[in-house]
Design a protein that fits this description.
- With 124 residues, the chain is mainly beta.
- The strands form 2 sheets. Strands 2, 4, 5, 6, 9, 10 and 11 form a 7-stranded mixed beta sheet that branches.
- A hairpin with a 4-residue loop joins strand 7 and strand 8.
- The N and C termini lie far apart (40 Å).
């Protein structure tokens, strides 16, 4: 079956960096666009970034543009989220998701598969 497993979360201070990874199995990874979403306590799940199957196209939420970078390694079936200049408002559970189309999407309901999430906590 399809599995998406996130890792790399943790507790950091404001201004620090983290790199999240999402390892995929059970699907033809290079046929999927991938996305990162996050959900803070009491808030709805929100879009963070997405990347096309080839890695040639990316899309970011305004709140992370210029600080976060999404990338993928199709040989390793892994998508990454490099997070720099972290802010306390970046604190959330981060999820990766897979979308079986060629286009990018910021809408959670359009994604086909989800990981279990990894906690990122940014302290001031």
């Amino acid at each position: 079956q399809v599995q998406l497993v996130e890792s790399g979360g943790g507790l950091v201070q404001a201004g620090d960096s983290l790199r999240l990874s999402c390892a995929a199995s059970g699907l033809t990874f290079s046929s999927y666009s991938m996305g990162w979403f996050r959900q803070a306590p009491g808030k709805e799940r929100e879009f963070v970034a997405a990347i096309s199957w080839s890695g040639g196209n990316t899309r970011y939420a305004d709140s992370v543009k210029g600080r976060f970078t999404i990338s993928r390694d199709n040989a390793k079936n892994t998508v990454y989220l490099q997070m720099n200049s972290l802010k306390t408002q970046d604190t959330a559970v981060y999820y990766c998701a897979a979308l079986a189309t060629l286009f990018l999407s910021a809408k959670p309901h359009e994604y086909d598969y989800w990981g279990q999430g990894t906690q990122v906590t940014v302290s001031s």
